[in-house]
Amino acid sequence: xxxxxxxxxxxxxxxxxxxxxxxxxxxxxxxxxxxxxxxxxxxxxxxxxxxxxxxxxxxxxxxxxxxxxxxxxxxxxxxxxxxxxxxxxxxxxxxxxxxxxxxxxxxxxxxxxxxxxxxxxxxxxxxxxxxxxxxxxxxxxxxxxxxxxxxxxxxxxxxxxxxxxxxxxxxxxxxxxxxxxxxxxxxxxxxxxxxxxxxxxxxxxxxxxxxxxxxxxxxxxxxxxxxxxxxxxxxxxxxxxxxxxxxxxxxxxxxxxxxxxxxxxxxxxxxxxxxxxxxxxxxxxxxxxxxxxxxxxxxxxxxxxxxxxxxxxxxxxxxxxxxxxxxxxxxxxxxxxxxxxxxxxxxxxxxxxxxxxxxx
Amino acid sequence: xxxxxxxxxxxxxxxxxxxxxxxxxxxxxxxxxxxxxxxxxxxxxxxxxxxxxxxxxxxxxxxxxxxxxxxxxxxxxxxxxxxxxxxxxxxxxxxxxxxxxxxxxxxxxxxxxxxxxxxxxxxxxxxxxxxxxxxxxxxxxxxxxxxxxxxxxxxxxxxxxxxxxxxxxxxxxxxxxxxxxxxxxxxxxxxxxxxxxxxxxxxxxxxxxxxxxxxxxxxxxxxxxxxxxxxxxxxxxxxxxxxxxxxxxxxxxxxxxxxxxxxxx
Lengths: 360, 265
Known about the structure:
The complex is a heterodimer. Helices cover 68% and strands 2% of the residues of chain A. Chain A is mostly helical. Chain B has two domains: 14-102 and 155-255, Rossmann fold, CATH 3.40.50; 103-154, no CATH class. The chains are: A mainly alpha, B alpha/beta.
């Protein structure tokens, strides 16, 4: 047993036959696939294809049933306005979901920040830019709390943000004394807070600065996710945190910063929210939490982490907007809108599961 | 066979003394010692649960020992994370491979040490130099000759187990400037691919880089190792010269069937 092979390449006796063997290293078998399997593979390789197709089908269906009232430039641009808030908050949610986390407190952070901005600028008379900055700082602070609890105490993000959701919402009610600042007051004292609501008319379409702000944010996040190391690390951490750590990524630092960034984005969402509704109410944006998760999930991101795209979330938000708007124009009761959105979520997740089972 | 320049009396490149690590009541490392010389292939063998993985995780920064000292080229080092060990030129192929399935081959090769664009785009926008990373990744994989892949931008989850192992091995070989640690690098590979990895290990040594090979494959260990470190019950039992002992001897030592006479090779 001590005879040690000294010649390369076939050093073990059983390897001598290798020379006679096949010399091909690996070849990809081209199997005949059924059309369904082909579709599955296509969707696996192009994760945003599903939401994009659903969006087009939705627009076509409502265009066909509702007609020009739905397809008018004005109405289509209105949908974009309607999804501004979900788009911004969904962008924050996307970053968290990619790391296999979830943030249930996004809506509460947004409302809390809007109340802080309003109270400082309108009630206390501070210059509006300072009020905005303090609001953004408060959003970052909320993110620091979430991030600290997730990375230091190692609590599951779901539990952490379920708790901070209540905490931030309670702080919001306390700080605002449950009072709403009326739109006229805000417009008179601190018009900067409503700046993102400024309308822009293009060819019969009506956008707001907020719509462009949302699109700009989406573009920026796309760049960060796809063209910077930080973005790649987000996916790696969500995919397999242990592997990411062994590869030399400081996973806790990535996780912590993603919650802080989400907090800042929510604060910017607060600014967009004031622009959208004019007034500042501690009861506003109640649905933003779940709507943001809906947009992310319908947009093709996986709640198990490592998968998802910001473009998908934007499309997901638009899908929800199109369904709500189209059903409303069809004079369908609000409850059926909720019914439809519910099925959208379930179908989206079922589809994600099916695509994941793709045979390599 | 080249026995490596591990002349007795020279300073080991990587040395550990008295490493301890406990998980509750379980002792993973019990005053473990370790010596790796410049340009040698050191095999580490041991029974399951002997603490081989804990030992290499301590050397690669993935585990912080409770006590003990690690020296690199004679200087004490304290690795708090794999990043520290990587910065010191120590690369590791983990048994789990430590790849991110949803990222591409190129992304995985450069995970944690991405290249940025030159100029303002890289400095201020922190933009990645994807072209350069893809080119280098392709070169490294081709050099290795481990496999053909359809595209360097293929997601790792679409690769076979052997191909994934190839990516992990290529990554370590490409970046390890002083020490490459491989934990069961041929476990998922076929006969032919295993041979390529063994050749690669010899190539790495030829560059003057030291290799630590953890393996259960005795024929491979006896074929390419310059020295064999036998780990048992959380510590180094002995180090043997593969030319002076048989595989049966080694197995007897590592299972405790026979006690080694105290001869460190």
